[in-house]
C-alpha cells in the first residue's frame, strides 16, 4: 500500500501513472485559482477600460456642448480635482522627500499637459464628436515625429506606413466633411489637433526627464507636483481665449473673471448666462446649463475611471491591450455620438464618408501595431544594430532595464515605465513616465536550483 501511494495506481494498460503528492496537488490547485483570478481581473479591467474610454470621449463632448463658453473654467476644474487626490496618494513624501532640483522638470511636464488640455477643450467646442475621435488618432504620427527628434527613435517601415495611412484617413475625413456635425468649424478643428502636439511632447519628455537622476522616485509624488503646476499653466494660458481668431468665442481678458463666475453659476446653479445674441451664424454658442452638472461630473468620473482602468490593464496585462481597447473605442464612440439616448439633441448620424475614414484609420492602426511588433523582434536579435528602446510611447509593453553603470555597494538601478494619470485633457493614449528605482541584493532559495541572486526594490532612506 505504501508503494502504491508513492508510485501511483497502475493504469489499465499496466503502466504506472504517478500521482501528485498532497503538497504538489495543493500547489497546482493554488496556481490554477491564482491564474484564474488574474485572468478574471484582467478581463474585468479591459471591459472597464473600454466602457470608461468611450464614456470619457462622449462626456468630454457633452461637457463642451453644455458649457461652450467656459473653456478656461472647465480646464481648471478638471485639473484642480486631481490635486488633493494625488496629495493623498503621495502622502508626506510629497514634501519630505521632495527634490528641489526636479521642480523645473515637473513644471515642464505641467506646461505640456496644461497646454494640451487648454487647446483640446477650446477646440472641442466646435469639433464634432466623431471627428474628435478620428483626429485623436493623429497622436501616433505626431508622437513618432517627436520621438524621432527628441530621442532619436527609429521605426519599422510598417510603422511608418501605418502612420501614413492614419494621416490619409484624417485627410479623407476632413475633405469629405468627415464629421456630419454641422457645428464643425475648421479653425477649431485645427486648435483641437494642435492640442496633440504638446501631448506628444509630454509623452516623450517623460521618458527623458529623469534619466540623469540618481535617486528613487514615487510616481504619485510626480503626479501631485505636475497637477499642482498645471493649475498655474492653465492660468498662464488665459490669453489664448482672447485671440481674435476665435471669432465670437473670443473672451476679452477683462471678462475672464466674469466668465469664471458665469461658469460657476452655470455648473452649480444651472443658470444660462449666454442667452442673447447667440446660436446663429457669426454669434457665440448659447449655454445649455440645465444638464451641465451631469455632463461635467460624468466626464470627471469617466476620466478618473479611464486612468484607473488603464493602470489595471497594464498591471494585469500589457500596454498592447490598451492599444486594442483604444482601437475598439473608435467605432463604439462613433455609434454613441449618433445615439439620441446618449447625446440627446446633439446626436449626429454619421455618413458613409465617416465610416470610410474610420475604416482607413483603423487599418493604419493595425498596420502600425504590427510594425511595432516586428520592430521589437528586430531589436531583440543579438545581431541587431538598432538601439533597443522599448517605450510605451510607441505602444510597447511597459518595461524596465538595469542601468549600464552596474552595481555599487550592493545596490543597482533599474529604469521602469510607470503609468500616470492624464489630468485635464482627453487622455488619447496611456500616459507613462520613466523613473529610476533602486534595487538591493538579496538571496532566495529555489526548490531545484538552490541559492540564487535576486534583486528587490528598495526605498532609500530620506
Please give a quick description of this structure.
This protein is of the alpha+beta class. The protein is 58% helix and 10% strand.
Strands, helices and their partners?
Elements: H1 2-7, H2 22-66, H3 71-80, H4 82-90, H5 93-96, H6 103-124, H7 129-136, H8 139-150, H9 157-175, H10 186-194, H11 196-208, H12 219-236, H13 256-269, H14 292-316, H15 319-337, H16 340-343, H17 352-380, E1 400-408, E2 411-420, E3 431-446, E4 450-458
Antiparallel strand pairs: 1-2, 2-3, 3-4
Helix pairs in contact: 2-14, 2-15, 3-6, 3-12, 4-12, 6-10, 6-11, 6-12, 7-15, 8-11, 9-17, 15-17
Helix amount = 55-70%
Radius of gyration: 26 Å
The order of strands across the largest sheet is: 1-2-3-4
Count helical runs: 17
What does this structure look like?
The protein is α+β, with helices and mostly antiparallel strands. The chain is built from 17 helices and 4 strands. It has helices at 2-7, 22-66, 71-80, 82-90, 93-96, 103-124, 129-136, 139-150, 157-175, 186-194, 196-208, 219-236, 256-269, 292-316, 319-337, 340-343, 352-380; strands at 400-408, 411-420, 431-446, 450-458. The chain has a 4-stranded antiparallel sheet. A hairpin with a 3-residue loop joins strand 3 and strand 4. Helix 8 packs across helix 11 (196-208) and helix 9 (157-175) packs antiparallel against helix 17 (352-380). The longest helix is centred in the first third of the chain and has 45 residues, at 22-66. It is globular and about 80 Å long. The relative contact order is 0.17. Residues 1-12, 390-410 and 441-462 have low confidence and may be disordered.
Amino acid at each position: 500500500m505504501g508503494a502504491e501511494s508513492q508510485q501511483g495506481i497502475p493504469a489499465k494498460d499496466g503502466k504506472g501513472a504517478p500521482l501528485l503528492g498532497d503538497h504538489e496537488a495543493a500547489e497546482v490547485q493554488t496556481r490554477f485559482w491564482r491564474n484564474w483570478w488574474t485572468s478574471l481581473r484582467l478581463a474585468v479591467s479591459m471591459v472597464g477600460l473600454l466602457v470608461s474610454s468611450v464614456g470619457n470621449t462622449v462626456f468630454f463632448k457633452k461637457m463642451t456642448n453644455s458649457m461652450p463658453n467656459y473653456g478656461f473654467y472647465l480646464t481648471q476644474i478638471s485639473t484642480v480635482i486631481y490635486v488633493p487626490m494625488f496629495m493623498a496618494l503621495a502622502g508626506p513624501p510629497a514634501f519630505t522627500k521632495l527634490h528641489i532640483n526636479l521642480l523645473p522638470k515637473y513644471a515642464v511636464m505641467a506646461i505640456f499637459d496644461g497646454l494640451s488640455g487648454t487647446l483640446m477643450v477650446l477646440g472641442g467646442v466646435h469639433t464634432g464628436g466623431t471627428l474628435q475621435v478620428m483626429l485623436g488618432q493623429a497622436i501616433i504620427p505626431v508622437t513618432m515625429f517627436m520621438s524621432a527628434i527628441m530621442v532619436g527613435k527609429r521605426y519599422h517601415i510598417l510603422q511608418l506606413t501605418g502612420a501614413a495611412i492614419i494621416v490619409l484617413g484624417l485627410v479623407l475625413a476632413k475633405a469629405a466633411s468627415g464629421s456630419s456635425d454641422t457645428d464643425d468649424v475648421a479653425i477649431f478643428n485645427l486648435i483641437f489637433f494642435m492640442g496633440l502636439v504638446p501631448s506628444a511632447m509630454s509623452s516623450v519628455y517623460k521618458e527623458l526627464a529623469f534619466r540623469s537622476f540618481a535617486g528613487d522616485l514615487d510616481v504619485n509624488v510626480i503626479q501631485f507636483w505636475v497637477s499642482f503646476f498645471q493649475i498655474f499653466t492653465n492660468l498662464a494660458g488665459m490669453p489664448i481665449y482672447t485671440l481674435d481668431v476665435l471669432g465670437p468665442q473670443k473672451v476679452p481678458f477683462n471678462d475672464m473673471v466674469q466668465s469664471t463666475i458665469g461658469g460657476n453659476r452655470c455648473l452649480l446653479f444651472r443658470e444660462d448666462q449666454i442667452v442673447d445674441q447667440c446660436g446663429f451664424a457669426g454669434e457665440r454658442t448659447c449655454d445649455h446649463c440645465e444638464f451641465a452638472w451631469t455632463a461635467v461630473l460624468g466626464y470627471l468620473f469617466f476620466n478618473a475611471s479611464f486612468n484607473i482602468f488603464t493602470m489595471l490593464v497594464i498591471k494585469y496585462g500589457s500596454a498592447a491591450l490598451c492599444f486594442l481597447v483604444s482601437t475598439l473605442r473608435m467605432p463604439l464612440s462613433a455609434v454613441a455620438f449618433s445615439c439620441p439616448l446618449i447625446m440627446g439633441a446633439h446626436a449626429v448620424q454619421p455618413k458613409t464618408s465617416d465610416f470610410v475614414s474610420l475604416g482607413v484609420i483603423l487599418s493604419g492602426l493595425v498596420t502600425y501595431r504590427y510594425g511595432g511588433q516586428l520592430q521589437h523582434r528586430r531589436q531583440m536579435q543579438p545581431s541587431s544594430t538598432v538601439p533597443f528602446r522599448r517605450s510605451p510611447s510607441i505602444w510597447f509593453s511597459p518595461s524596465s532595464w538595469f542601468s549600464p553603470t552596474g552595481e555599487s555597494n550592493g545596490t543597482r538601478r533599474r529604469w521602469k515605465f510607470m503609468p500616470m494619470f492624464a489630468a485635464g485633457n482627453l487622455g488619447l493614449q496611456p500616459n507613462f513616465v520613466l523613473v529610476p528605482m533602486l534595487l538591493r541584493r538579496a538571496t532566495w532559495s529555489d526548490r531545484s536550483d538552490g541559492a540564487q541572486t535576486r534583486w528587490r526594490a528598495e526605498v532609500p532612506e530620506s
